Give the backbone structure.
Amino acid sequence: MEIDIARVRRETESVVSFDLTEKIPGFMFGTDNLTFNTPLHVQIEVHNTGKLLLVQGTVQTELTATCGRCLEEFVYPLNIKYEDEWILREDASADQKDTAFLFDQDVIEIRDRILEQIVMALPMKFICSAECLGLCPTCGVNRNLLKCECQDKQLDPRLAGLSKWRSKD
Ligand SMILES: [Zn+2]
Ligand SMILES: [Zn+2]
């Protein structure tokens, strides 16, 4: 995902737009192996403020993730706002070196920076839906698809105590 900022970085107050689409490989996120279901779509506007390049736009894609409750794969749509500051490495202050994206040349590769934004927008745990019932802890069936009898058979813990007490008679 390379872009050419030769003109915008030399002309104060100029603005340039980029509309980029790229198919990219998946990545590991914690213990989750995430893959991209659709190409990465990045639409940004780069504005030269005179001090730096102010970048605003959106990042859209769809990930294939595994639900942490039912272990089924599902499509996780991602639509995030992207705001960033890009600055020539030699012009960056100490603070900017920590927060801004530093570039050295006219043609820059922004894919890793975009991936960082995606990772920051991901949830701690992927759940296919708020209503996901997960797997039965007893027999392991996916309770979204099948109804098992396990819960009915489980004794109320209070009654279990009662039956123990009775058996002592
Ligand atoms: Zn689920
Ligand atoms: Zn069960």
Observations:
- The pocket of zinc ion (ligand 2) is lined by residues 136, 138-139, 141, 148, 150 (CB under 6 Å).
- The chain has two domains: 2-132, 133-169.
- The chain has a mean pLDDT of 90.
